[in-house]
Specification:
The protein is α/β, with parallel strands linked by helices and about 240 residues long. It has helices at about 20-35, 55-65, 95-120, 150-170, 205-215; strands at about 10-15, 40, 70-75, 130-135, 175-180, 225. It has a single domain, classed as NAD(P)-binding Rossmann-like Domain (Rossmann fold, 3-Layer(aba) Sandwich). The structure holds NADP nicotinamide-adenine-dinucleotide phosphate (NAP).
Length: about 240
């Protein structure tokens, strides 16, 4: 059983991207824990639904969740790497303005709008946590392989947006925590075209359990940080 006891029991857990590989597993684990009074699992197909490119839908989804009780745990498990219109760039010659803009819209700007609507209404008392799923490849210091320009850069931008928001949050909600988390390499639609032999790949359930363990253990002194699924800090 997942231990979420660092969070008060009165609250709401809210997951954006509940239809994704990691997002669905997070919802399942949260539900099984029975720890929160409500779980709001939001996706493009939930009711209400949200879309990262539609701020009004994000605002509405957050309001809907907040009406159920205090937002104790909010996870942004959305993300974009490829679809039938675009995939990660291997070389400078692959750069395309519209595709780069789309990566930023989905991986950085949408999550920033989630932070805009969630962070100001986190409870003033007791632990609350907002985590956005980033990626180790968004680390500039850890970039030794190159490639994947749009995904890397948009996740680096996400980390900077998270860090900036965490500083503002610290002044207004000193007990709240805001972090970026790397879920590990996880079997999902996002990663499946890039599966390689020799990579340590986790099931979504394993990743979700590790991530929730990290979230339970995080404290306010770690707000604004970027951590992996073992809770180890990742270089920016
Ligand atoms: N899998 C890995 O190995 C890995 C490694 C490092 C980091 N990550 C990060 O971990 C997070 C979760 O990844 P995953 O593997 O679970 O990916 P996934 O299965 O592809 O899930 C992505 C989620 O993002 C949602 N999404 C995409 N565009 C959206 C939009 N416009 N509006 C609303 N929701 C949208 C998807 O919703 P729909 O179902 O509606 O498309 C889905 O719920 C991502 O941030 C990813 O970058 C994953």
């Amino acid at each position: 059983m997942i231990d979420l006891t660092s969070f008060e029991r009165d609250g709401v857990a809210l997951v954006f991207g509940a239809s994704g590989g990691v997002g669905a597993a997070l919802c399942h684990e949260i539900e099984m824990s029975g720890h929160f009074a409500h779980l709001c699992a939001m996706s493009r197909r939930s009711s209400p639904s949200f879309d990262l490119t539609d701020q009004e839908s994000i605002r509405h989804a957050v309001e809907h969740a907040a009406a159920q009780g205090p937002l104790r745990l909010v996870i942004d498990a959305t993300g974009f790497l490829h679809d039938d219109q675009q995939g990660p760039e291997k070389s400078l010659r692959d750069l395309d303005a519209a595709k780069l803009a789309r990566s930023f819209a989905l991986n950085a700007i949408g999550p920033a709008l989630i932070m805009k609507h969630v962070l100001p209404i986190l409870p003033a008392q007791g632990k609350s946590l907002f985590a956005t799923l980033s990626a180790r490849v968004g680390s500039i210091g850890d970039n030794h392989l190159g490639g994947w320009y749009g995904y890397r850069a948009s996740k680096a931008a996400l980390n900077q947006l998270m860090r900036t928001a965490a500083i503002e949050l610290r002044r207004r909600r000193p007990q709240a925590i805001c972090v970026s988390l790397h879920p590990g390499t996880v079997q999902s639609d996002l990663s499946s075209p890039f599966a390689k032999d020799g990579l340590e790949v986790q099931t979504p359930q394993q990743s979700a359990q590790s991530l929730l363990g990290v979230m339970n253990a995080l404290n306010v002194s770690q707000t604004g940080g970027f951590f992996d699924h073992h809770g180890k800090p990742i270089v920016w």
